[in-house]
Amino acid sequence: MHIEEAVKLDFKDVLIRPKRSTLTSRSQVDISREFLFHNSGKKYKGIPIIAANMDSTGTFEMAQALGAHQMSAALHKHYSEDALVEFFTTLKHAGGKASSAFYSMGIGKSDYEKFSAVMARAASAIEYVCIDVANGYTEGFINFVKTVRQAWPHITIMAGNVVTGDITEELILAGADIVKVGIGPGSVCTTRRMTGVGYPQLSAVIECADAAHGLGGQICADGGCVVPGDLAKAFGAGADFIMLGGMLSGHDECAGDVVERDGLKFQRFYGMSSRAAMEKYAGGVAQYRAAEGKEVLVPYRGPVAGTVQEILGGVRSACTYVGAHKLKELTKRTTFIRVTQQLNEVFGKA
Q: Is 225 an active-site residue?
């Protein structure tokens, strides 16, 4: 047993200190990024925000909607082979704006076989893959990343989830281009409560970004963002990409039942390790495990475009406060100050 004494921080524990700026308008800020991926050798240009590969947010409709804003979506794992082939090939032939959509998969034999079949039919149309497990610390996961990299050297691979620098480095050396960072910070994740395992997200991003950038790789901060300011903090901490689930839930482009309560509309939203998800896709919770997610009702919010404007506007504004003309400059211009309170909530939390 070992105790680490150093304090680890979450988004709620800090604010970004303002700095002198020559910017006169938020419109002057460029929040797109360009990357040359270390292992695939492919180039990326866009706004590095990705809808999570949950079955509510990782939809074809969300990919199309976010693509119109230069953003991306990681599709959920439960689309059929035929549906995925049709989506990617149609997108490729149409020159679709959602061309940075990620194919998502687990690490089981059936996952590999399905991906192989889709690639055989739509190989040139798929450029990004997300290899996604809850626990990225197993040898089997790392070996799976190696297998996919060897089989498809041109594919850009995002893999996770992890929260420490050592395995971040190992995944990049195994073939990952982007390492997905976060264990337990999601809005409908109960891993920390059920297992006692996790890592405060801001510190995880700082440590994993440092490790990845030393090898020429990138990271994606996955989970923990509640408001647009949290994205600014994640980018300021060194995140190259950010993945959002709860912040993009409740929209027209999401899958999920819409229900009414007292005249108000809500949409069902649940974690992919919740009892609801396992009953839907795996016939229930297996006897050897427990559910590590929950199901909630989120207010129905209409088209996602309005939420996208709030998120991107918040990030642009953060850049103006610290004098970052481009998003890539934000981390160099960021100084975090520790705080005991974020907001004045005398009139409520809204």
A: no
CB distance 275 to 295 below 8 Å:
yes
Q: For 128-180, how does the pLDDT look when each residue is reduced to its tens digit (9 = 90+)?
A: 999 999 999 999 999 999 999 999 999 999 999 999 999 999 999 999 999 99
The pTM assigned to this predicted structure is 0.94
Please state whether beta strands 156-162 and 128-132 pair in parallel, antiparallel, or not at all (unpaired): parallel
Q: Per the residue annotation, which of 57, 156, 168, 191 is the catalytic one? A: 191
Active-site residue, from 189, 208, 225, 319: 189
**Cα end-to-end span (Å), the chain:** 42
pLDDT tens column, 39-55: 999 999 999 999 999 98
Check if 189 is active-site.
yes
Return the amino acid letter for 255.
A
Give CA–CA dist 232/236, Å, rounded: 6
C-alpha distances (whole Å) from 167 to each of 108, 148, 162, 197 are 20, 18, 7, 16
